[in-house]
Amino acid sequence: MQQPDRPRLYGRSKGRPLRAHQTALMENLYPLFEMTRMRDLSAYSEIWMEIGFGGADHLVHLARNNPEIAVIGAEPFLNGVAKAVAGIEQFGLKNLFLHHGDARDIMDILPDGALARLYILFPDPWPKTRHNKRRLVNEAFLKDARRVLKSGGGLYFASDIIDYVDWAVTRIHHNGEFEFLPQAPGVWRTPYQGWPGTRYEAKAKKAGRPCHYLTFKAAA
Ligand SMILES: C[S@@+](CC[C@H](N)C(=O)[O-])C[C@H]1O[C@@H](n2cnc3c(N)ncnc32)[C@H](O)[C@@H]1O
């Protein structure tokens, strides 16, 4: 489904070989929760999406704590998807839908204003200048993000890479269709209440890198 004119944005798509049970889950349970063009989510009160959910801790937390919401997760890294499927099994989730691949494939098939929330948490930093073009948050992506978010919908961005924070804020500002939501001074230093943490956030903290949590509202 990858569109030929799009650069690949992610690094590795496989880690350690899956264990037998994970392989069985990918074969038997994943297809039931795969997010496809045909999936009807109209019974849910809202749809939220997380891009690049990695170890799936935040994604599974969202789905567990919000059974009335359809939560979509997209991740090209197979081992991460297997973790999300394990979460579906462990917690008996019914509202978590997965795409093993590029999130932009799913954004392409979502109708305008489909999402109430879009999470991008610790995206791959691509720190070398020659790789900056692989950063997820770019002009085309923000245009699509605004299209799939309903007016007033939330764009949640977190990163420990200050250069990427600057990069994202600059591009979101230029896009002009998102409003920054600083409810209080310094709010970008703390995540939202009830935040479960993510694996990359933990790595960043361990390495002493401060994390930034920015919330934007899609304009009317
Ligand atoms: C640095 S990791 C962060 C993982 C997780 N959000 C966390 O905070 O622990 C970034 C993740 O984004 C995924 N990713 C990169 N490009 C993506 C894309 N176009 N669509 C979906 N996921 C993507 C990568 O595979 C990787 O797992």
Report what the structure shows.
The chain is α/β, with parallel strands linked by helices and 220 residues long. It has a single domain, classed as 3-Layer(aba) Sandwich (Rossmann fold). 34% of the residues lie in helices and 20% in strands. It is built from eight helices and seven strands. The protein has a seven-stranded mixed β-sheet, with helices on both faces. It is globular. The model has no long low-confidence stretch (mean pLDDT 94). S-adenosylmethionine (SAM) binds next to helix 5 and helix 8.
Keywords:
220 residues, alpha/beta, Rossmann fold, binds S-adenosylmethionine
Q: What's the topology here?
A:
Elements: H1 20-28, H2 30-33, E1 46-51, H3 57-65, E2 69-74, H4 78-91, E3 96-99, H5 103-109, E4 115-121, H6 139-148, E5 149-159, H7 162-175, E6 178-180, H8 199-206, E7 212-218
Parallel strand pairs: 1-2, 1-4, 2-3, 4-5
Antiparallel strand pairs: 5-7, 6-7
Helix pairs in contact: 1-4, 3-4
This protein binds S-adenosylmethionine.
S-adenosylmethionine binds near residues 9 and 80.
